[in-house]
Structures are given as structure tokens and as C-alpha cells.
């Protein structure tokens, strides 16, 4: 009995010791979390954020708490990374640890719980990303074949602009049609006619989706998803737009299934269907119907809205800076002339134009907050401990506007990418496509499109504003997940 009593006492002491040790470790880790503003119960720090320009609120926090700090969105703890050094240390130097997709209810809802490339994690993400990259490369990404596809679409676009006869037009859907047709040829196997009603409806849904993602309603959904599911509001129309795009894709998949030749895949969807057939006997395969719809959705939406918005914003900037446009015209005349289409090889011989394309991307800061990451294990950074599964916000805006790497961070200045001799120079803080393991799958395609579309347009036209350029406002109309330019019109004047 005495022995049993002693044993019980020793076990009790051990349990108490373990509990105290774990509690102390938790307190120690909490104490070593990056600093940040004091959160309110349930609300966290959301009342301290400017809903119209969330990223600016985050940058102000960085000025007070440093480049790595902690905030609470509702009850969820988030670590924010601000500035080039902090983001580089995380995404590049510790890429594997920061490769998880962070908690973002909107993405989880859209991706049916984390399917597709954007919303997935772990082995699923690795398999889908590897497959998507390989397939995009097989269909020409970074090769001559996709360059010719872009050149062809740029020709169609200039012909559409020529039909305007110099009248003022809103360029929004012109760019959406052209850019979407490039990625459509890869994922669907065909381009669409510009007046195709189904195509126009699809582009309208895409535009609505991108704007909806940047709205205050979307931000509130990410903080209180269960509550917002029950609440009526504009976010319901946003979800309907997403459903419309996914239904369009599902119908395309069905048509592909009916005409599939496994020995001769025509596009991304065909390749995915072949992979599904190859793995149909694997119980936990990542290649199934939910995955094909969501992965195609990721490819198509990212490949359309980001590039078309950048071009639309870019031409607005050139209207405000006619001297920049004129210098591009001179470089085009010198290197390309008027008798052949621009090609990607021209980029290395056109440092000023290349610098302008980079500066447009830097200045518009298209995705200021980046897409949330997640740490896959505990990690120590700058003497702080970030616990496993913590959501990370890498502020791309703070990198693209880092005053340590850009002399005029808030001004449009192509000189940020030119040396004293006028040669193009890279800048490590150029991260519009993010960086590290989660860098945009279509970066190479997007960069090619931006250069070829812009040079083809300026080879054929001079840009004119129907209103005084002083009235053009370059600040975003909406600034949330993405920066959306204000509506404007311009005239394409034939040379």
C-alpha cells in the first residue's frame, strides 16, 4: 500500500511537472510572439483597420511595432511581415517553412475546402502545382509557341482599337478579352470571338469577382465567415459570380470528356482528364472532378484579371506621363520599327520599355497584401517565435514601396529599374508575383504578355485622353485584396 501510495504521488508530481512545463513553454512562446497592438475580445484589431485601404493600416502598424508584428483578425492570430528584408527572410530564406496557404475563408469557400493550386496545402498543393507547371510548359509557357499566340491576340486587339477611329473608349473589356483569350487557348484549347455573348458574360463575372475580393464585405467574410454566410449583402452576388465561372468551367470539362483523345491532349483540361484516368484506382488521388474545376478556375482567373488590370492601369499612367510614352515610341522606332510585330527577344534590347513595364507593376501594387501564407512548423525569426500553423501576411506593398530599395517609392519613376548608363537593372525587391515556393505559377506568361501587348499597342497608336490629364486620378478606386483602377477613357490615335 505504501509502495502504491508513493507511486501515485510520484505520478502526480510528474504530471504536475509536465503541465507546468508545457504551460511555461506556451507562455514563453506567447511572450516571444512578435509585438503588436492590443486586441479587443472577439473583434481583435479590426476596428483599428481602414477598411478601404487595409494595407496602409498594416504599414502604419509596422512603423510602430517593427517589420514583424502580430495582429488579431477577430480571434485569429496573424503575423504580418513588412518590408523587403522581413519578406525575403521568410519567403526566400525559409521558403519551405512559409510555404503553407494561410487561413482565408474566402479562398477556402471558393476552392471547395482547399482544392486547386491557390487554396491547397501539403502534398495536394505539391502535386497540383507540379502538374500545373509541367502542363503549362508543355503548352508553350516561356516558349515560341505561346509567344506567337500572344502576338496573334495582340494583332486582334490592335484591330479592335483601330475600329474606334480615335473615339474615346473604356479599355477595360478590350484588355479582358485579349488577355483572357491567351490563357483560354491554353486551358480550354481555343480562343473566343470578342463579341461572343457567353464570353462577355464570363468576363463580366471575372471583373465582378476581382472587385468583390477587394471589397469591405469580402474582408468581413474573412474575419466572420459563419456570421456573413447568414447575412444578406453584396457578398452574395460575389459568390454567385464565382459559381457562374465554375459552372462555365464544369461545362467545358464535360465537353472535353466527350471528345477526349488520351493520346493527343489538346489543352490543360485534356491533360488533367488523362491524369484523372491514370490515377482512378488510387483512393486518395488529388486528381478528380473537384480538383480539375478548381485548378482550371485558378489558372483562368489569375491568367485573365491580373494582366488585364495591369495593362488598363498602365495605359492610364502613360496618359499622365506623356514624356514616358514618347520615349517608348522612340525606342520602338529604333529597335522594332513599323514593319514587324514585337517579339520577346526585343525586350533585352529595349531597357527603357522593360523598365516602364516593371515600374507599372511596382507602382500599381496590384495585390498589396499578397495571399496569406502559413508556417508549417514553429520558427524563430528576429528573436521571435512564430508557432506552427500561424497565418502570415507578407505585405507585398511594403516590399514594392520599400524606401531602402526604391528612391521614390510613392512616385512613378522608370529610373528605379535603370542604371546610370540607361541599362536595365534588376531590383531584388520587385515582387509583384510574390516570391519563394508560392510564387505565381504563371509569372513567365504574364511578363511576356505585358511586354508584347504594351509594345504592340504603342507601335500602332499614340494615346490621348479626352479629358484634361490633371483630372485623371491614379489612386485606386477600390483597395483591398487588389488595387482596382478608377474608370477612365482614352483615344487610340493611329500613327
Automatic annotation (TrEMBL):
Establish whether keyword Thylakoid is in the entry. Answer: no
As for membrane topology, the entry says: Peripheral membrane protein
Q: State whether keyword Transmembrane helix applies.
A: no
Q: What cellular component GO annotations does this protein have?
A: endoplasmic reticulum membrane
What GO molecular function terms would the record report? arachidonate epoxygenase activity; heme binding; iron ion binding; oxidoreductase activity, acting on paired donors, with incorporation or reduction of molecular oxygen, reduced flavin or flavoprotein as one donor, and incorporation of one atom of oxygen
Among PANTHER family, the record links this protein to:
CYTOCHROME P450 2E1, CYTOCHROME P450 508A4-RELATED
Cofactor(s), names only, from the UniProt record: heme
Against InterPro entries, the record matches this protein to:
Cyt_P450, Cyt_P450_CS, Cyt_P450_E_grp-I, Cyt_P450_E_grp-I_CYP2A-like, Cyt_P450_sf, Cytochrome_P450_fam2
Report residues binding heme.
440
Name of the protein this chain belongs to: unspecific monooxygenase
Where does the UniProt annotation locate this protein? Endoplasmic reticulum membrane; Microsome membrane
* EC number of this enzyme: 1.14.14.1
One biological process term in Gene Ontology: xenobiotic metabolic process
Task: Give the record's family classification.
Answer: Belongs to the cytochrome P450 family.
Secretion signal, residue range per the UniProt entry: 1-25
Entry keywords, A to Z: Endoplasmic reticulum, Heme, Iron, Membrane, Metal-binding, Microsome, Monooxygenase, Oxidoreductase, Signal
